[in-house]
Amino acid sequence: MSNAMIINGKEIGQEIRKSVAEEVAKLKEQGITPGLAVILVGDNPASQTYVRNKQKSCEAIGIYSELIKLPEEVSEEELLAQIRSLNHNDNIHGILVQLPLPGHINEDKVIATISPEKDVDGFSPVSVGKMMLGQETYLPCTPYGVMKLLEYAQIDIAGKHAVIVGRSHIVGKPMGQLLLQKDATVTYTHSKTPDLPSITKQADIIVAAVGRPNFITKEHVKPGAVVIDVGINRDENNKLIGDVNFAEVEQLASHITPVPGGVGPMTITMLLYNTVQSAQKTLSQDKKH
Ligand code: NDP
C-alpha cells in the first residue's frame, strides 16, 4: 500500500487565516476592530503558552486581544464579575477562559456565564445545545478545525463510517456531532470500549482524541481509511507526538494528519474565525437599528 496523503493543517490554517485577515481589514474600514478577551487564572506554564500563542495569532491578523490575568486565588465571584463586564464591553466580540481553572472555581458555572453571543470557544451549554440542534452558533474550535481539514482535503463524509476515539466535551463529543450533521454514521468509543481495534477497523474516518502517544497503530486501521490525529503529547525528548503511530499508520491510511502541523494549527485558526464572525454580527445588528 502506498503512503497516505498528508493533510497539511499548517498550510490550510494559513489559507483560512489569510481570508480571516481580509475580513478583519474590511471590518476596520467600517470602524470595527474585532476584539478577543482571554482570561488566564494562575500561572500554569502550559496555559501561559497557549494564551501567548492565541494573542500572537490575533495580533498577526489585526484582531485586538486583551489578556486578563487573575491570580490563582481569585474568587469565583470576582471571575464571574469579570466575565459579566466583558459580556457588556462593545470592544470585545469573543471571550475565552483558558482551562483548566483552579479547583475552588466551578468551571461549568464560569463557562455558562459567558454570553452565547461572545462564546467563540463554543463550550457554553447554549452553544453546545444549538450545535446539537444544528442551529447557528459558534462551533468548538478543534472539531470545527477538523471539519475544515476534511473539507479542504475533499474527503467525502456522507454515508461514511466515522469512529471517534475519545468523548471529551471539547473534542470527541462535538466531533461526532459535526460529522453526524454531514451525514456520517458515527460511532463513539472511549476507555470502557472493549476490543477497540475491532471497531476502529470498520472506520472510513478515524478521529483520535485520546491523549495517549502512539495509541492508534496499524492494528486499528482499515486500509484506505482517513486518519485524523487530534492528540498532542510529548515524548521522552519533549518532542510533540500525536495519538497515532504515524510511521505505521501512514502506510495504510489514504489520508493522515501529522503532529505537529495537522489539527493543532486549526484550533487557533477557528478561534480567530469565530471572533471575526462575532464582530461581523455586531455590524449587521447595527444596520438593523
Ligand atoms: P480528555 O482526557 O478529556 O479525553 C480523552 C478521551 O480519551 C476520554 O474520552 C477517554 O475515555 C478516552 N480514552 C482514554 N483512554 C482510552 C482508551 N484506552 N481507549 C479508548 N479511549 C480512551 O482529552 P481531550 O479530548 O481534551 O484531548 C485529547 C487529546 O487531544 C489530548 O492529547 C489533547 O492534548 C489533544 N488536544 C488537542 C487539541 C488541538 O488543538 N489539536 C485541542 C484539545 C485537545 P473516558 O471518557 O472513558 O475517560
Features:
289 residues, purine biosynthesis, one-carbon metabolism, binds NADPH dihydro-nicotinamide-adenine-dinucleotide phosphate, Rossmann fold, alpha/beta, THF_DH/CycHdrlase_NAD-bd_dom, histidine biosynthesis, 10 helices
Q: What this model shows, in words?
A:
This protein is α/β, with parallel strands linked by helices and 289 residues long. The chain folds into two domains: 85 residues, Rossmann fold (3-Layer(aba) Sandwich), CATH 3.40.50.10860; 125 residues, Rossmann fold, CATH 3.40.50.720. Helix content is 42%, strand content 15%. The protein has ten helices and eleven strands. A six-stranded parallel sheet has the order 1-11-8-7-5-6. Strands 3-2-4 form a three-stranded parallel sheet, sandwiched between helices. Helix 1 runs parallel beside helix 10. The protein is globular, with a radius of gyration of 19 Å. The model has no long low-confidence stretch (mean pLDDT 96). It binds NADPH dihydro-nicotinamide-adenine-dinucleotide phosphate (NDP). NADPH dihydro-nicotinamide-adenine-dinucleotide phosphate (NDP) binds next to helix 10.
